[in-house]
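Subject: complex prediction, re-run

Hi both,

The earlier run crashed halfway through, so I resubmitted it with identical inputs.
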Amino acid sequence: MIDPVSIPQLNKHFRLQWEEAQDCFVLLYPEGMVKLNESAGLILSCVDGVKTVEAIIAELSERFPQVEGIALDIEEFMTTASAQHWVAFS
Amino acid sequence: MTSPPATSPPLWLLAELTYRCPLQCPYCSNPVELASAGTELNTDDWFRVMQQARKMGAAQLGFSGGEPLVRQDLELLVAEARRLGFYSNLITSGVGLTGDRVGALREAGLDHIQISFQSTDSDISELLSGSRKAFAHKLAMAEAVKSAGYPMVLNFVLHRHNIDQIEQIIDLSHQLGADYVELANAQYHGWALLNRDDLMPTKEQLDRAEKITNAWREAHPDGMRLFFVVPDYYEERPKPCMNGWAKMFLAIAPDGLALPCHSARSLPLDFPNVRDHDISAIWNDSAAFNAYRGFDWMQEPCRSCPEKEQDFGGCRCQAFALTGDASQADPVCTKSDQRNQIDAALTAANCHNAVSATMQYRSWSASQNIIASTP
Ligand code: SF4
Ligand code: SF4
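This time it finished cleanly. Structure:
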């Protein structure tokens, strides 16, 4: 379970970047690259090592009021991202 | 000129900055004809290559060689790579890597360093035989890499003369604080092919080394990660070389020759040079890059083989080196009628255990001699 007051931070060996040629956010790391879908890209670009999960949920809910269940989506993504070692929580 | 349909862009760019190298590894995968290469690309040439490849969508960039640290403009190249948005990797023997240089590279924006410890490096041979001085030197370098925030990624090339020291190699990596260690048997291209019969480990050696590696993994479930790579000669199917010819990987040799694989220089194709053409024309339109794309070039047994989409018929360079025809199946494949060549090499490796005096060390002059004696 992801603790809402924990702070996600991008694994320092990964770099998140917008790829013009692929029209999406990607995560770059020593052995390769993962293409992120739109929501994953949006969520990860909010991860700055300062904001808590709660704060990210609040921010994205405000930006996308029409999207239902956004909190659940974010928590799910954080679980995946943590399992993949893309982010760690403090 | 018509391009073949749906060519995906190169994602990996390998910049072989130089063939110069302070070491003389007999298992070097550089071409044996390296002394015949033209003059090295200059800084601006490399800037142009990086810009063009990046524009096509390349995102991963490797700086290798030879020894890339001998290029005085390495920091400039790294900075440009960063500016363009590449994820940059330095592949170095670590000879010449100082704390200051690590700092400067970090500053320039280098993302990752892989240190390939070479057993011909006197430090390493001394280390494996227990020298404290050599150890202190490597440790200082490892600490510089770690304190700059890089993971410690080490690579050891294994062969019959060092594979029995696998325990010392693993211990050394552990003491240096490695995160990932590649224990990779030599790939038999270039100099390594020339010296193959002196480098190929026996089955017994290989099994022992694998067993020790597995035992270490079991004893240290949260320890550094070990990757063990067996020589493909001991496999029954070839590796999917480069994930398919000219599919995602683009190598540029020190003199600007564009290659779909760093070994491809040995093939009888007319490879384009980045001094004459831009990357997109090279990638999309050149005859050499289109030569083995897709499956139409294949002969039997590959052509009708259900596994062709997994291994793409293996390595073109290995097929050419061993059969004289680059469009044949990689002879590692047991379906190939040339597999007997691989088996013969294995038989030879497993029945003679003498240390041969014929090992050819990689050097400029050795390369010149080889070129002079080839008709
Ligand atoms: S394999 Fe050895 S000789 Fe070849 S480039 Fe690397 S360090 Fe130099
Ligand atoms: S026959 Fe060709 S395609 Fe089939 S497994 Fe062997 S090398 Fe691969």
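The radius of gyration of chain B is 21 Å.

- K.
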